[in-house]
Amino acid sequence: MRLMVITAHPDDEAGGFGGSLRLYGDRGVESCVICLTPGQAATHRGGARNDQELAAIRRKEFAAACEILNVSRGIVLDYPDGQLHRQDIYHVVCDLTLQVREFQPQVMLTFGPEGGVTGHTDHSMASIFATLAFHWAGRNNRFPDQLNDRLVPHRAQKLYYATANFSLPDRQPITLSPATAVIDISAYVETKIAAFKAHTSQSPLLQLFEGHMRKRGARELFHLAATMKSGSVEPETDLFAGISEDL
User: Fold this and answer.
1) In the chain, alpha helices (H)
2) What is the arrangement of strands in the sheet containing 73-76, beginning at the earlier edge strand?
3) How many CB atoms lie within 10 A of CB 77?
4) Which residues, 6 or more positions from 228, have their beta carbon under 8 angstroms from its beta carbon?
5) Which CATH architecture has domain 2-227?
6) Cα–Cα nearest to 99, from 6, 203, 229, 204
7) 50-80 pLDDT, tens per residue?
8) Is 195 helix (H, G, I), strand (E, B) or coil?
């Protein structure tokens, strides 16, 4: 079984998906996390003297967090932090479609188009890019130049958006998708916090993050956005429920 997560910045993998990544990793699921930017425009700089230094620092932090979360493959792309809305959508989706076809996940996770609880524009764009890649990776008339004897169209069986049952104060309004899957990560709360702590350049955010985790961190919530199986959506407690390894 294979799980792919598409995020925008280093630390998103821990904050939004960390418990599920470690849970499924411990169950033997291979995982791939793709981070679209190295986070070089972050407010918190971790002592970096310029964007290039910060990008290098955050790549190392991302690798450390992925190790804690038992991620099989962590990839940081080079799109500009804070500017995903200015990128050529066809080019970004081409890059992600290639990653989907190479890794061949059964399940994909990303943010919702609202941008998660922060409403970050980059998170919204990551959602749009990932959603298109989910659909287009399985079609032989999308980016056909990628296809050869080794690389073929691949249809992931499920796409989920991370969601929540709370919003942050003093932020722009967001409208979250309803949770259709509730994943019990109570055994991995400390692991998730440790993975976020690996992003030492972002340590000023730790107190806020840990506070939310201690208060409501025993579950990660997801919205089933697309699935190969038709019919009504039933509540789930397992992202791989109904998944076939033969597809």
Assistant:
1) 12-26, 51-68, 89-103, 121-136, 189-197, 206-216
2) 73-76, 30-35, 2-7, 107-111, 158-163, 219-227, 181-184
3) 13
4) 155, 157, 158, 247
5) 3-Layer(aba) Sandwich (3.40)
6) 6
7) 989 988 999 999 999 999 999 999 999 999 9
8) helix
* Sole residue written with tokens 């399940």: 107
The β-bridge relationship of strands 219-227 and 73-76 is unpaired
Distance of alpha carbon 13 from its chain centroid, rounded?
6
CA 183 to chain centre: 15
* Distance in Å from the first CA to the final CA of the chain: 11
Domain ranges of the chain: 2-227
Burial pattern 176-208, b for ≥16 Cβ within 10 A else e, equals bbebbbebebeebbebbbbbbbbbebbeebeee
How far is residue 73's CA from residue 106's CA, in Å, rounded to a whole number?
A: 15
CA 181, CA 199: separation in Å to the nearest integer?
Answer: 28
pLDDT tens figures, 2-44:
999 999 999 999 999 999 999 999 999 999 999 999 988 777 7
Quick one: tokens of 121?
């524009």
Please name the amino acid found at residue 135. Answer: H
Phi, psi (degrees; rounded to nearest 5) at 42: -60, 150
What are the φ/ψ torsions at residue 162 (nearest 5 degrees)?
A: -65, 140
pTM exceeding the 0.85 threshold for the entire prediction: yes
**CB–CB of 104/2 below 8 Å?**
yes
